[in-house]
Amino acid sequence: MMSEYDARPTVTILAGNSDDRLTQQLWSEMIAAIREIVVFQSLGGNVMFEGFTDGAERWQTACWVIVLPDDPFVPSKMRDQLRGIAHAFEQQSILWVQADQIVYLSGEPS
């Protein structure tokens, strides 16, 4: 089993439309732009999860969990691109949560 020091950084990216500023068309365009960065430009990273709120929910939310590649420049490049998307779609923010500690919890007694 890998130790917590061997793991590559894990990032959760969240975007929402809880203020209802974006029309469905603009929401769709923003999600496509974020997906382009997360799925296609993570430069060797692994997308572990991609999910969205149910279509019948009042507010839209999108979430991605990715494991970043072993490249120290990728996180800042991706954050800059996401900031650009937030600005282009007049959003207050896109949330980037980077795990600073990964602990593997064993099912075996300690």
How would you describe this protein?
- The chain is globular.
- The longest helix has 17 residues, at 24-40.
- It has a 4-stranded antiparallel sheet with strand order 2-3-1-4, covered by helices on one side.
- It has 110 residues and is α+β, with helices and mostly antiparallel strands.
- The model has no long low-confidence stretch (mean pLDDT 86).
- Helix 1 (24-40) runs antiparallel to helix 2 (74-88).
- It has 2 helices and 4 strands.
Question: Briefly, what is this?
Answer:
This protein is of the alpha+beta class and 110 residues long. It is built from two helices and four strands, in the order βαββαβ.
**What's the number of extended β-strand segments?**
4
Report the CATH topology name: Alpha-Beta Plaits
Biggest sheet record: 4 strands, antiparallel
Number of helices: 2
Strand content: 15-25%
- Global mean pLDDT: 86
CATH architecture assignment name: 2-Layer Sandwich
CATH domain class = Alpha Beta
- Widest sheet: strand ordering: 2-3-1-4
Percent helix: 25-40%
**How big is the Rg?**
16 Å
Which series of helices and strands comes N to C? Answer: EHEEHE
Tally of discrete structural domains: 1
Q: End-to-end distance, in Å?
A: 15 Å
